[in-house]
């Protein structure tokens, strides 16, 4: 399937199907999909698979010298971990039900 075809069906796919497709893609395919998506879909994709909570005011050098996560960043990371655990637990339950 071409990146344009994937971009057309991306909004209609379930979150689990999106995740599976995303994991099966290599970096070039992911980049082509990003380019083919509409801007709002690109933003949603970035929010889902990237952590960009840090404020842009922090300088990069300061970040690497003495960086500690803020409460907002910790909470965001906890939510991502919890969501991943819930998704993987649901997959395991569905797989065990099929047996």
Account of the protein in words:
With 99 residues, the protein is mainly alpha-helical. It has two domains: 50 residues, no CATH class; 41 residues. It is 73% helix and 0% strand. Helix 1 packs across helix 3. The two termini are 31 Å apart.
Topology:
Blueprint: H1 3-9, H2 15-24, H3 27-36, H4 39-49, H5 60-65, H6 71-98
Helix pairs in contact: 1-3
Notable traits:
single chain, 99 residues, mainly alpha, 2 domains
Cα-atom radius of gyration: 17 Å
Distance between the terminal alpha carbons, to the nearest Å? 31 Å
**Overall body shape:** flat
Return the domain count. Answer: 2
Order of helix and strand elements from N to C terminus? HHHHHH
In DSSP terms (H or I, runs of 4 or more residues), the helix count works out at: 6
- Counting DSSP E segments of at least 2 residues, the number of strands comes to 0
Q: Please state the average pLDDT score.
A: 77
Low-confidence stretches: none
Taken as a percent bin, the fraction of beta residues is: under 5%
Q: Considering DSSP H and I runs of 4 or more, what fraction of the residues is helical?
A: over 70%
